[in-house]
C-alpha cells in the first residue's frame, strides 16, 4: 500500500500543478480579452467622434448651400442645426484630438454669431448684399475649418484602428 499511496500522492501533486498552470493561463487570457475589449471601445468612440465631426461638416455645407437661396428662414434653421451638431460634438471626449478647446470655442462663437445674424435677418426677411456676402465668407471659412477637422478626426480613427 505504501507504493500505491506514493503514486497517488505524486499524481495528485502533478494534477494540482496542471490545474494551477491552467488557472494562470485562463487568467492571462481573460486579462488579454479585457484589454482587447477596452481597445475596441476606444476605437468605436473615435469612430463615433469622426462621424459626429463629419456631421458638423455636412451641416456647415448645407448652411452654405441654403444661404445662397433667397429666403432666410431655411438658412437660419440650417445655422441652428449646425450649432446643435457642434454642441453634441464639443462634449465628445475624443473631440480634443481634433481641435483644442480654444479653437473649438472660437468656431462655436463664429457659428453662434452667424446664427444670430441670420435669425435677425429672417425676422425682417431682409438682408443686404454686403451682409449676405460677409455671411457667405464667414460660413465658407468655418466650413473649411470643419473640413480640416473632419479629415483629422478620420485620420485619428483610422490610425487608432491600425494600431
Automatic annotation (TrEMBL):
The chain crosses the membrane at residues 6-24. It comes from the Bacteria. Keywords: Membrane, Transmembrane, Transmembrane helix. This is DUF2489 domain-containing protein. It comes from Zoogloea oleivorans. The lineage of its organism: Bacteria, Pseudomonadati, Pseudomonadota, Betaproteobacteria, Rhodocyclales.
Amino acid at each position: 500500500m505504501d507504493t500505491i499511496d506514493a503514486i497517488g500522492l505524486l499524481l495528485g501533486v502533478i494534477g494540482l500543478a496542471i490545474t494551477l498552470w491552467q488557472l494562470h493561463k485562463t487568467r492571462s487570457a481573460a486579462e488579454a480579452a479585457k484589454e482587447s475589449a477596452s481597445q475596441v471601445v476606444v476605437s468605436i468612440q473615435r469612430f463615433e467622434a469622426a462621424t459626429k465631426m463629419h456631421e458638423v461638416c455636412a451641416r456647415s455645407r448645407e448652411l452654405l448651400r441654403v444661404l445662397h437661396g433667397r429666403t432666410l428662414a431655411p438658412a437660419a434653421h440650417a445655422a441652428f442645426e449646425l450649432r446643435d451638431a457642434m454642441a453634441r460634438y464639443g462634449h465628445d471626449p475624443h473631440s480634443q484630438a481634433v481641435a483644442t478647446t480654444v479653437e473649438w470655442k472660437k468656431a462655436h462663437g463664429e457659428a453662434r454669431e452667424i446664427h444670430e445674424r441670420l435669425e435677425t435677418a429672417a425676422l425682417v426677411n431682409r438682408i443686404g448684399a454686403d451682409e449676405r456676402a460677409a455671411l457667405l465668407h464667414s460660413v465658407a471659412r468655418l466650413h473649411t475649418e470643419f473640413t480640416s477637422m473632419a479629415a483629422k478626426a478620420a485620420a485619428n480613427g483610422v490610425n487608432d484602428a491600425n494600431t
